[in-house]
Write a structure and sequence with these properties.
CATH superfamily of the largest domain in chain A: ATPase, nucleotide binding domain
Order of helices and strands of chain A: EEHEEEHEEEHEHEEEHHHHEHHHEH
Helix content of chain A: 25-40%
Mean pLDDT of chain A: 90
Oligomer: homodimer
CATH topology of the largest domain in chain A: Nucleotidyltransferase, domain 5
Number of strands of chain A: 14
CATH class of the largest domain in chain A: Alpha Beta
Largest interface: A-B, 45 and 45 residues
Low-confidence stretches of chain A: 1-11, 20-31
Radius of gyration of chain A: 20 Å
CATH architecture of the largest domain in chain A: 2-Layer Sandwich
Structural class of chain A: alpha/beta
Number of domains of chain A: 2
Distance between the termini of chain A: 35 Å
Strand order of the largest sheet of chain A: 1-2-5-4-3-6-9
Number of helices of chain A: 12
């Protein structure tokens, strides 16, 4: 079951039913809590339809078209495509949530400084989307990492903390490095919406130049871009996968690059735990596609530092690290949780 | 007006009325909200009597006597001394709060790992003090930095955030380096009560050995102990004061040591803001006794880094830094706020 629509610029967009959880929309359509979540990234837009039980029942993918119009069209097209495909009238949606990589005012639904998606000046995205979709469809906007940490908490439930005692960081390792923080069940956005910008903390004084103007930023060592630079992919496959495979095969240069990378990610984990003492750090972003070998390397790096320090050992850092679950679009799921009004 | 009592080990303890705010205890004794706060440090115990309006009306100081018995005696002696001197019956106290440098369970009032005050194993301090003072006197215990950040928020009100929207870090520069975090009006203790342990984040990879077992920890560069080591006092005066005076007088070595110190403190400020995006960072601890020259040096260090980075500049880090107010015992005041049940 798949519908194909056209993206804003004519590029193909696809709407797909989830492998399981497919359901007859007419059955539960009156239940409260259906929502759409749209995760807007620099290259693609991924949207999901979440059922009232919080399960992904359908997803939609389209290339990003930069600029306010492209952003607005992506959101409204995804919402209509998902609901039409599921036979769910728009007015039955509890809401639409949008995660955007920029500075977001969740109260006004305004986005700015979203450079990667071509929105620099303030753009009232929520109001614009509501106007197109109809005023009875609430639209809420959140920073993408804040949405992702909500999605991660939803997707990686913690047996020790059932219910609402959710305490974690979502550490995104992609083009850049940044974190979303859910502290005691509440999003920590920060007083100037700059919480989690740990990618621009200095890891190596006097080290590599960063686009932010500083030197030695964590982002230069722990991002996917850092792997691209240190171990370029020879064949178009993702550089992190190529690097970790080469290291696993025993290439000593690859081992060195991998271990330095894992050290840098471990340093980011230490920043998050020694500052906020989050219960868990969920590693996501493109690099997390490496999977278990990444987790093993980061844990090994953390354990190596802890071996020299009873203090660090007492914090059990390696135990706190998790991988974002493969195949779960935590950003879009979190946006859908925002959309249905799980204000935290 | 001063009463002198004897500390637990026979050392002199003094109880002093505050220069202003002296009042006839019989007048307001029935008002709710009188409380005692006890700040237990490695060398001294400082206690205050807070009136219902949150003003310090009397203080008490005694040397620290290590161990559970010494801790208990310090708390009960201070409480009795302050209330007797003020003519306030114990049962009129809303409560007694105690700030202890260790791992504290605020629910059970148990203290452990308080190495500097000689309490290693779990000690049920709140229950023990209540038993001595009488069960009708509630006793609450909190980590000393958590108490201090409450005291700092109380003592340094923010005109931009009247009422309860209090968002700040208290950065203690003393024997070690650590922070207390008040995020959106709530204490952030951390899931393992390790929030704010930024003194053991690596500032200089491969740098100075730290007592924690790591190398290059922030504590080795930004603490008062770091100044003691780099610029020993020749005459028993506090090393930070001697260093900053020598730097102000133009001694090039002193300027270099001061600027490196300020850089390290600035790095701690960056960690706090880029991770938690706190609105303010209040610098306290022994080194803050230097006063304005310390603030100026830290702000200059932050501005120097921001000059190279529009991103850092946009965070306005230097503007966020404040000095803990001279003459206000923020630790004891915060403990008194804990004591009167300002649970956050």
């Amino acid at each position: 079951m798949e519908t194909t629509t056209l993206g804003a610029a004519g590029a193909p967009a696809t709407t797909t039913a989830a492998p399981d959880g497919v359901r007859d929309g007419s059955r539960d359509a009156r239940a409260p809590g259906w929502s759409v979540g749209v995760d807007v990234g620099g290259t693609k837009v991924l949207a999901v339809l979440l059922d009232p039980e919080g399960r992904v029942v359908r997803s939609h993918r389209a290339p990003t078209v930069p600029g306010p119009d492209g952003l607005l069209d992506a959101v409204t097209t995804a919402t209509r495509s998902l609901t039409v495909a599921h036979g769910l009238p728009l007015e039955r949606l509890a809401g639409v949530g949008i995660g955007v990589p920029g500075v977001v005012d969740p109260v006004t639904g305004t986005v700015e400084h979203a450079v990667n998606v071509g929105v620099a000046s303030p753009f009232a995205l929520a109001a614009a989307a509501s106007a197109v979709l109809g005023a009875r469809t609430p639209v809420r906007v959140e920073n993408d990492l804040n949405a992702a940490v909500l999605g991660a908490a939803h997707a990686v439930p913690d047996p020790d903390h059932p219910g609402d005692a959710r305490d974690l960081a979502f550490l995104a390792l992609g083009t850049g490095v940044a974190a979303g923080l859910l502290l005691g069940g509440s999003l920590r956005r920060g007083t100037h919406r700059a919480a989690g910008e740990i990618g621009h903390l200095t890891l190596v004084p006097g080290g590599l130049s960063c686009t932010c103007g500083q030197r030695g930023c964590a982002e230069q060592y722990a991002s996917g871009s850092a792997i691209d630079a240190a171990w370029p992919s020879p064949d178009g496959r993702p550089a992190p996968a190529v690097l970790f495979e080469a290291a696993a095969a025993g290439d000593p240069d690859a081992v060195r690059v991998r271990d330095r990378y894992a050290w840098a990610v471990g340093a980011c984990v230490r920043v998050l735990v020694l500052t906020c003492d989050v219960d868990r750090v969920v590693v996501g972003g493109g690099v997390s596609g490496v999977g278990e070998p990444l987790l093993a390397a980061v844990r090994a790096a953390l354990d190596a530092e802890a071996a020299a320090s009873p203090f660090l050992a007492s914090l059990r850092l390696a135990d706190r690290v998790r991988l974002a679950p493969a195949g779960v679009p935590v950003g879009a799921v979190g946006a859908a949780l925002v959309g249905r009004g799980e204000v935290v």
